[in-house]
């Protein structure tokens, strides 16, 4: 359709609507007729494709090749067990990945988009799915356009259409029709679904919704599937490739040595090499990592942090600096006017109980009633309801307390033009019709408004303005943590007042300053303290006054600065000084979004891992640049949300701290799984290597080792994904951003555990064999000893540093207990069930055998706990040692 070429009038007629939009009944009827405004969900990979993708892994190819060759050699049991290992592993991966995908999908559902429309002549926020053709969509900076619209009014409107056209430079929009043949990017009279408003504002008539929008037509864009890959998974992939090489080499060397040195048969040696390979390959690891991350995502959602990109969970655990906005995140965003500073002095007020006093206060109340986008209305019960920006709401309460009937006052002074508030110029101006005169009202940050004033309103009319004196008094108020707003006006009798001259309004008369309190959130104070204990530095970055910001910073425990670093001061710094200031100071005030980006870059250059919050459209670059961009689910814009990794459903700083806590737990659990898998797999493989090299009879058969690997890899290690947080997660410094998968000092533990397991099982095998027992019996005992080693080690692996020899350590994770129950049951079957005895050549064992197995394997706990205790002592010592 060529909506872009039609005039506004034709469009209005054809859609059978008007410029004020539809009414609710019409909207409901149209919703019925046109359907919900939703794009087709992204094409999901089919279940079969997902299953097949589980096999795309080098180590799995290795296993499949081994299965093929063993089958060709007629070793059907071995071949079957290898195939079972591969299949079970793929199935678990498949199920877990499915869970992870649906967890991500459910979480995306929590971010249901909203749209602002005009209906019944009123501005309303509705679920974007309920937008219908004929609706008037109100476009504001940061909003995502939710349907294709023909613009009917624009004021400096610019839209980022990169989602649709790939062109990243915002397009200036107009309401004038354009040529019928214009390409998508040139249809300047239209705004399209999925694009983002970057500046200005406008109204658009909805012409197409759902799949009929331009975005809905571009199907391939929507079929993108969220990939579940993370840097950690890539690291693991790399580890897998290296392991594959080592394993193949070790297997080949062992087999060759067996044949040449000890005269074993080539087929037996090939089978041993296959067993070795299967034993050593950590095939369960990718599934474990995915499920651990997905569990983290779910737990985070329960704590009000919605993860948009999976890798963020991992990065969260490494955050060293949080840069947070003040208003609404660290503070409650519940604003109350507490003081008025007028020419005749300071009035401390409480709008709930006392009215502002005097002529000047009245003038101020009348002015703020007009220069505000908040609305006030009486509901059916006679209650007045005020809605809008919390600060403007506070001002309307002030006006109401001053006996201004806001609604009547507004209709007596209709607004004819306005400059909306913007964090760049920090004021808002409205122009009102007074019959043959015009009345201009401006409110904004004192630094932005006072310099535009020539005079000040006093009881005796306009007097000269002593800027320095006002500045001093303003700072006194700011020092109490009050947010300041200057209110000024200008009246013109008949002469035109141009609001849109480049330099903004001037020649104003200052009416006074308003001091507004916005107390810190209680839980933010606690979260700041907790983060600091966890070695994380907090920086407050705000558009507010430098002295106000510092006062709030002190209340939050951010330090004792009396004045924040201002954006202006930052601008004057060279790169070195900037970087030092960014690292050293904690309150940044009157900062613009461009400074935020520079701050992130400077902190990153200093080696920090930065989480940055943001809500406005201009925050997008800083959010994208930060290691973890955090946006606001309630107060934020769509643009900020789309650029962020994490959305806070409750806009609360404390949630960031909770998210970092979860991120650390997730990372810990992955490390724990790796620390569990590596020595167990190594011991399994080494058992075969050592036996062959020494020319011994194999202590366990290849098919037995396959069995152990199959059941332990997917049960025991997986249980660690569910490990609850350790008590001290937030008492230790963040892990370095480039930390190795295996934390320092842990390599030694892995080595010790592998050696102890190897030594213990070999000793049992050799001892019992020397006693002249039946080989099959001794092998059954050896295998069970190996499994018991792994069971005990699992308990100790639950905690990296703390002891597990206590109630919580032994019983704290019911998944561990469940996995162990499964293993014990499986081993009993393996040992006593006749079909299993046939398959694996096992024999029933007696009580003495079991006692021996426990006796030999249990000491592994002492080894690990001893290593932990030694490490703890060393750490304490180095902490106590004098620095320098
Ligand atoms: P942040 O959310 O970044 O912590 P903030 O909300 O305090 O900071 P801004 O919204 O940029 O920062 O506001 C900066 C200053 O602009 C305020 O201190 C106030 O003086 C002024 N201001 C804020 N909102 C408005 C508004 N709607 N109209 C006029 N002036 C405003």
TrEMBL record:
Membrane spanning stretches:
55-73, 79-95, 243-264, 270-295, 674-698, 704-725, 746-766, 778-795, 815-833, 845-864
Q: Where is this region: Disordered?
A: 1-22
Look up keyword Translocase and say if it applies: yes
Give a GO cellular-component term. Answer: plasma membrane
Record-stated family = Belongs to the cation transport ATPase (P-type) (TC 3.A.3) family. Type IIA subfamily.
Molecular function in Gene Ontology: ATP binding; ATP hydrolysis activity; P-type sodium:potassium-exchanging transporter activity
| Native organism | Spiribacter curvatus
Main location (coarse class): membrane
For this entry, the protein name equals Cation-transporting P-type ATPase N-terminal domain-containing protein
InterPro entries named in the record: ATPase_P-typ_cation-transptr_C, ATPase_P-typ_cation-transptr_N, ATPase_P-typ_cyto_dom_N, ATPase_P-typ_P_site, ATPase_P-typ_TM_dom_sf, ATPase_P-typ_transduc_dom_A_sf, ATPase_P-type_domA, Cation_transp_ATPase_P-type
Q: Which Pfam families match?
A: Cation_ATPase (PF13246), Cation_ATPase_C (PF00689), Cation_ATPase_N (PF00690), E1-E2_ATPase (PF00122)
Keyword Cell membrane annotated = yes
Q: Which GO terms describe its biological process?
A: intracellular potassium ion homeostasis; intracellular sodium ion homeostasis; potassium ion import across plasma membrane; proton transmembrane transport; sodium ion export across plasma membrane
Instruction: Name the UniProt key words of this record, in alphabetical order.
Output: ATP-binding, Cell membrane, Membrane, Nucleotide-binding, Translocase, Transmembrane, Transmembrane helix
């Amino acid at each position: 359709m060529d909506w872009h070429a039609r005039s506004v009038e034709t469009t209005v007629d054809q859609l059978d609507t008007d410029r004020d939009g539809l009414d609710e009944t019409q909207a409901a009827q149209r919703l019925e007729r046109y359907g919900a405004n939703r794009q087709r969900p992204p094409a999901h990979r089919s279940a079969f494709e997902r299953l097949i993708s589980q096999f795309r892994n080098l180590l799995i190819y290795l296993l499949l090749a081994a299965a093929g060759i063993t089958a060709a050699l007629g070793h059907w049991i071995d071949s079957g067990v290898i195939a079972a290992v591969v299949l079970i592993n793929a199935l678990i991966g498949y199920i877990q990945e499915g869970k992870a995908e649906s967890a991500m999908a459910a979480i995306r559902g929590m971010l249901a988009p909203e749209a602002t429309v005009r209906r019944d002549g009123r501005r309303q926020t509705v679920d974007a799915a309920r937008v219908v053709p004929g609706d008037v969509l109100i476009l504001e900076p940061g909003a995502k356009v939710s349907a294709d619209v023909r613009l009917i009014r624009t004021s400096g409107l610019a839209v980022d259409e990169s989602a649709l056209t790939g062109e990243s430079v915002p397009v200036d929009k107009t309401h004038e029709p354009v040529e019928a043949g214009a390409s998508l990017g040139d249809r300047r009279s239209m705004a399209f679904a999925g694009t983002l408003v970057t500046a200005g504002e406008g109204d658009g008539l909805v012409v197409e919704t759902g799949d009929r929008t331009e975005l809905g037509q571009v199907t391939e864009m929507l079929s993108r599937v969220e990939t579940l890959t993370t840097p950690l998974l890539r690291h693991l992939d790399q580890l897998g490739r290296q392991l594959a090489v080592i394993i193949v080499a070790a297997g080949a060397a062992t087999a060759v040595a067996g044949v040449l040195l000890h005269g074993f048969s080539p087929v037996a040696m090939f089978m041993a090499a296959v067993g070795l390979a299967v034993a050593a390959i950590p095939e369960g690891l990718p599934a474990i990592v995915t499920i651990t991350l997905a569990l983290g995502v779910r737990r985070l959602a329960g704590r009000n942090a919605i993860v948009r990109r999976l890798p963020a969970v991992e990065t969260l655990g490494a955050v060293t600096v949080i840069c947070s906005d003040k208003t609404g995140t660290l503070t409650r965003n519940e604003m109350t006017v507490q003081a008025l500073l007028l020419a005749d002095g300071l009035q401390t007020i409480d709008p709930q109980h006392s009215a502002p006093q005097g002529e000047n206060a009245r003038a101020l109340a009348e002015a703020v009633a007009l220069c505000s986008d908040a609305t006030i209305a009486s509901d059916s019960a006679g209650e007045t309801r005020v809605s809008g920006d919390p600060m403007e709401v506070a001002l309307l309460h002030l006006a109401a307390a001053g006996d201004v009937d806001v609604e009547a006052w507004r209709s007596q002074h209709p607004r004819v033009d306005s400059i909306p508030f913007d964090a760049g110029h920090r004021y808002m101006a409205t122009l009102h019709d007074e019959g043959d005169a015009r009345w201009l009202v401006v409110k904004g940050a004192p630094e932005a408004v006072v310099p535009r004033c020539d005079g000040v309103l006093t009881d005796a009319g306009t007097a000269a303005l002593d800027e320095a004196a006002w500045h001093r008094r303003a700072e006194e108020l700011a020092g109490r943590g009050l947010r300041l707003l200057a209110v000024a006006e200008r009246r013109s009798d008949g002469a035109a007042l141009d609001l849109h001259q480049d330099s903004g309004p001037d020649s104003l008369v200052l009416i006074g300053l308003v001091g507004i309190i916005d107390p810190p959130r209680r839980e933010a104070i606690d979260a700041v303290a907790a983060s600091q204990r966890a070695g994380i530095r907090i920086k407050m970055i705000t558009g507010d006054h430098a002295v106000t910001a510092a006062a709030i910073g002190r209340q939050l425990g951010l330090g004792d600065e009396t004045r924040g670093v201002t954006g202006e001061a930052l601008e004057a710094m060279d790169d070195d000084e900037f970087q030092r200031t960014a690292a050293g100071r904690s309150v940044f005030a009157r900062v613009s979004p461009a400074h935020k980006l520079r701050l992130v870059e400077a902190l990153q250059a200093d080696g920090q891992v930065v989480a940055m919050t943001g809500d406005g459209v201009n925050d997008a670059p800083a959010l994208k640049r930060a290691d973890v961009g955090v946006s606001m689910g309630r107060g934020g814009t769509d643009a900020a949300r789309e650029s962020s990794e994490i959305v806070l459903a409750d806009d609360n700083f404390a949630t960031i701290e909770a998210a970092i806590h979860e991120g650390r737990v997730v990372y810990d659990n992955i490390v724990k799984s790796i620390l569990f898998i590596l020595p167990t797999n190594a011991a399994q493989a080494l058992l075969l290597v050592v036996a062959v090299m020494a020319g011994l009879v194999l202590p366990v058969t290849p098919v037995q080792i396959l069995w152990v690997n199959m059941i332990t890899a997917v049960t025991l290690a997986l249980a660690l994904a569910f490990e609850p947080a350790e008590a001290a997660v937030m008492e230790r410094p963040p892990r370095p951003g480039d930390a190795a998968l295996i934390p320092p000092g842990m390599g030694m533990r892995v080595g010790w555990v592998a050696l102890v397991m190897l030594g213990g099982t070999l000793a049992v095998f050799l001892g019992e064999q020397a006693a002249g027992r039946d080989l099959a019996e001794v092998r059954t005992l050896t295998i069970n000893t190996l499994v018991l080693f792994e069971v005990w080690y699992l308990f100790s692996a639950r905690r990296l540093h703390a002891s597990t020899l206590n109630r919580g350590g032994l019983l704290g994770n019911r998944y561990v207990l469940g996995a162990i129950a499964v293993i014990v049951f499986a081993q009993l079957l393996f040992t006593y069930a006749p079909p299993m005895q046939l398959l694996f050549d096992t024999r029933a064992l007696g009580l003495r055998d079991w006692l021996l197995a426990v006796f030999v394997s249990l000491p592994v706990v002492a080894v690990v706990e001893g290593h932990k205790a030694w490490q703890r002592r060393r750490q304490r010592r180095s902490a106590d040692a004098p620095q320098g």
